[in-house]
Design goal:
alpha/beta; 7-stranded mixed sheet; 9 helices; 31% helix
Length: 318
């Protein structure tokens, strides 16, 4: 797909703007920007930095020492800072007044909700309706006063924005580590544009080994369904199906009780020791299995991925 790059200097400036905006979300100045380019205008007010053109990875000769400082700082950005940058950029670049917006679930998607909330409170974005994909996203959106709806009343979305647990070169995804895969897929499948926001650690050559594939199943005869999943031909014996225990919001056992989703279902996580042999085939076999409600393979749904890394922000389009 097409890739656009935002260089290191811009990346750090954006981090500073985003961080300040997050810290002072109630102030008028903190929500001045309604696009990434406008957010970066604050960049010119920072004397220790010089402006870099997007797509160019070096600073001007007159600012070489400053550039070295910028580069050093960029390499030390925390994962939370990277998440905030892509979350803010997704809203600034893809959301405008009058839209119906799907709000994803997870720590990265929460940054997008944060940014939307700031712009909504400031009045710079108006007449929007948002559809949350989990109870915790609903609670976060409500805290900003963002108007909410469901697919029952707003079945067609202009854009949906969410994170991902893995992204392959074809922009296929593994999602659902946070347990919201069913609602996420229902909402994001109805969006004209589905924008994925990740840090570079989520990019992979193939789905499977880096993150378990979650499968939401009915509680009724759940052990039977777990075994049926593990024996699917598309898996070729390459995965172990493990019932999620404790919290449904992560795939690490952290309790003695079976994890329950927002929909009252269970989750089976497929742990792979090698790449998924054929992700589209597995996706079809999973959804055809009686007892399976939905799975965390998002195949052919992504329109663009915004990726934050130590060398800048890149946008890869389908």
């Amino acid at each position: 797909g097409h890739i656009e790059k935002m260089p290191v200097a811009v990346l750090v400036a954006f981090a500073l703007v985003a961080s300040a905006s997050a810290s002072y979300g109630g102030s008028r100045a903190s929500v001045r920007a309604t696009s990434t380019s406008r957010a970066l205008r604050s960049f010119t007010a920072i004397p220790s930095l010089t402006r870099a053109k997007c797509g160019h990875n070096s600073l001007s000769k007159s600012s070489s020492s400053q550039g070295r400082s910028v580069s050093a700082r960029a390499t030390t950005l925390s994962q939370d800072e990277l998440k905030r940058m892509v979350g803010y950029k997704s809203i600034d670049d893809y959301v405008t007044s009058g839209m119906v917006v799907g709000l994803g679930t997870g720590s990265t998607a929460a940054m997008a909700v944060e940014r939307l909330g700031q712009l909504w409170k400031s009045g710079e974005i108006k007449d929007i309706v948002a559809i949350p994909t989990s109870e915790r996203t609903r609670e976060q959106a409500e805290s900003y006063g963002i108007p909410l709806a469901t697919l029952d009343t707003h079945p067609d979305l202009d854009v949906a924005i969410d994170g991902a647990d893995e992204v392959d070169p074809d922009l296929n995804l593994v999602k659902g580590g946070g347990g919201a895969l069913l609602r996420e897929k229902m909402v994001e499948a109805r969006a004209k544009k589905f924008i994925v926001i990740v840090d570079e650690s989520k990019m992979t050559d193939a789905l499977g080994p880096g993150f378990p594939v979650p499968v939401e199943i009915t509680p009724f005869c759940h052990e039977h369904t777990r075994r049926a999943i593990e024996q699917l031909p598309a898996l070729q014996g390459a995965a172990k199906a493990v019932l999620r225990m404790g919290s449904s919001q992560n795939n690490q056992p952290d309790g003695d009780n079976i994890a329950i989703t927002d929909n009252g279902n269970y989750i089976v996580d497929l742990f792979f020791d090698k790449p998924v042999p054929d992700a589209p085939k597995l996706a079809q076999e999973l959804i055809d299995t009686v007892g399976v409600v939905e799975h965390g393979l998002f195949i052919g749904m992504t329109d663009a991925v915004i990726i934050a890394g130590s060398d800048g922000i890149s946008v890869k389009e389908a």
